[in-house]
Amino acid sequence: MKKYTSLISIALLSAGLTACGGSDSNENTDDSVNTPSKGNGSSSEQSVYMAPTGELAQKMLAITPSVSDNSVESQCSTTSSVYETTDLYVGFSSSAKSDGNDADLIYAAQLTQIALNELITATGLNKSNDLNLDGQNKWVICLDNNQTGNGTGSIASMTFSPIELNASGFKLAKHELFHVVQTELLGKNTIYHHLPRWFQEGSAEYFASMDSSNVSRSLLMNFTSDLASNPSLQGLQSAYGINTYNHQQDILEAYPQYDNKLYSIYKTSVNYLVDKGLTDQALISLIRNSYQAGQDPQTMPQFHSEIAMLQATGAFTLPSGYDYTDLLTTEGYSELILNDWLNTDQYSASFTSVSATVTIARLFLIPTLDQENEYEVTVNTDQSGYSYAVGSIPDGDYQIYAIDTADENAYGPMTQSVVNGELGDIDFTGVNVCETCND
Question: What one-character DSSP code corresponds to residue 256?
């Protein structure tokens, strides 16, 4: 959905509506963060980011970054100003726009320190003993102000490029910071040698959002079927078998429609274990105990040994007769995830496509009054219906776009409401391509 998320947002802006992360007004309100001046106090240049508002803004106001004499040259830019908070040094990345100013860094410092504080609270980790943060040792944050929506976390540092400093940017910061947490728990060894890809990203998504939403059953059914039927995918049978980045890229090369879906699939995989009893503390223990010097980074045997031990000691409980290794097989995954776990928690209704020649893969929903959130649901491959997890889409009015399987056209929008958690039957017969979405 990467392509049409941005294009549809632009279409909404051109229609006079507020897109994700935007604001209804250029004026600051009582719950917004005032745009700071540059560190030397001689300029009031505006940040490239819109001032955060609401609860996030209030949290940011409690953080007061200071100008630092320390350099972040080895991780970030050689010419960047540096701001510091209790636990972080913040500077521009080497790829940042040259017209970035200190206001950007101040916002980033506030946002990332709050994100780190929340992760520490959620995980119960000790800053000094577990994360090597003691006031002298600090992590380095590199801000890329190109607003790409991407990031990366590594040993004691991260780079991130939030689109806006809203809920989405905050989640991105927490996700990448959790990758830094992973490296600390693994003794500053790379996570890619010790944690399977589904768990690397799934646990980062889990701790970044701390919600229990899952992808739809129909999407997982399609995904599992595609894995099992493709001999070029190295015997992958379920999401739990995606060990490496190369596995992930092979899947996306064969099935590009899952781009921007895999991380949600990974988080659903973590959510299942949590639903079966695995606590947040057990997830942290699983990461820490996955380290094994010299292990094969393609198979990561210590991780699989540790998760099997957690099941054996009752840290999580699967239905009678099944163990963790069954989740790696098509048959076991189908029985445990699709037929047992998700089958009773899905809302579904009928769907009619634009025409007999247009095949729709998913629906993209944007709330009419709340542009900070967006939702996707999966359309059945036979085009007869769609489904989503019960309770995952709030009641309200939505603009709905239908995205074809080639990700080449967005049709719509149509307007429809979710009432008591139900969106109802959807009929896109004769709806035209969204021209402004393709501009």
Answer: G
Tokens of 423: 């969106």
Could you tell me the two tokens for 333? Answer: 């995954």
Residue 2 and residue 259 in contact, taking contact as beta carbons nearer than 8 Å: yes
Are the CB atoms for 395 and 416 separated by under 8 Å?
no
- 209-218 pLDDT, tens digit each: 877 778 888 8
**Which tens digits make up the pLDDT trace of 63-97?**
999 999 988 988 898 888 999 999 999 999 999 98
Beta strands 139-143 and 157-160: pairing type? parallel
Rg (CA), the chain: 23
Closest CA to 289 of 304, 274, 306, 312: 306
Encode 387-418: b = buried (16+ Cβ within 10 Å), e = exposed: bbbeebbeeeebbbbbbbeebebbbbbeebeb
Contacts 24+ apart (CB under 8 A), 247-255: 247/197, 248/197, 251/227, 254/226, 254/230, 255/223, 255/226
17 CB-contact burial (10 Å; exposed 0-12 / middle 13-18 / buried 19+) = middle
Describe the chain by its helix, strand, coil percentages, rounded to 5. Answer: 40, 15, 45
Q: Give the residues across from 84 on adjacent strands.
A: 66, 89
DSSP classification of residue 433: B
Mean per-residue pLDDT, 299-318:
96
Query: Tell me, what's the pLDDT at 2?
Result: 41
- Give the amino acid at 236: L
Q: Which residues contact 27 (CB under 8 A, 6 or more apart)?
A: none
Cβ within 8 Å of residue 51, ≥6 positions away: 23, 28, 32, 33, 34, 35, 57, 165
Of 390, 389, 396, 384, nearest in space to 425 by CA: 384
Which 8-state DSSP code applies to residue 344? T
Q: How far is CA 299 from CA 192, 197, 241, 248, 290, in A?
A: 11, 11, 9, 14, 12
Answer whether 141's CB lies under 8 Å from 89's CB.
Answer: yes
